[in-house]
Amino acid sequence: MGEDLEHFFSDEGAGDDAHGDFFALPPQPPASRSEMRRKRERIRRRRMITAVAALVVAVLVVVIGVVGMGKLKAWRDARGTDTAAAVQDYSGPGDEDVTFTVSSGQGAGEVGENLVKADIVKSAAAFTNAVASVDATLYPGTFALKTHMKASDVVTILSDQSKAGGFLEVRPGERLSDVIANAAAVDGFDADAFKSLLEGDGSGILPAEAGGSFEGWLEPGAYNVQNREAADVVKDMVDARIAKLDKLGVPTGSERDDILKIASIAEAEVNSEEYYAKVTRVIDNRIEQGMTLGMDTTVAYGLGIKASELTDAQLSDESNPYNTRVHKGLTPTPISNPGDSAIKAALSPEEGDWLFFVTVDLSTGETKFTTGTLDEQNAQFQQYVNEYKTNNENAN
Question: What is the role of the protein in this entry (predicted)?
Answer without folding.
Answer: Functions as a peptidoglycan terminase that cleaves nascent peptidoglycan strands endolytically to terminate their elongation.
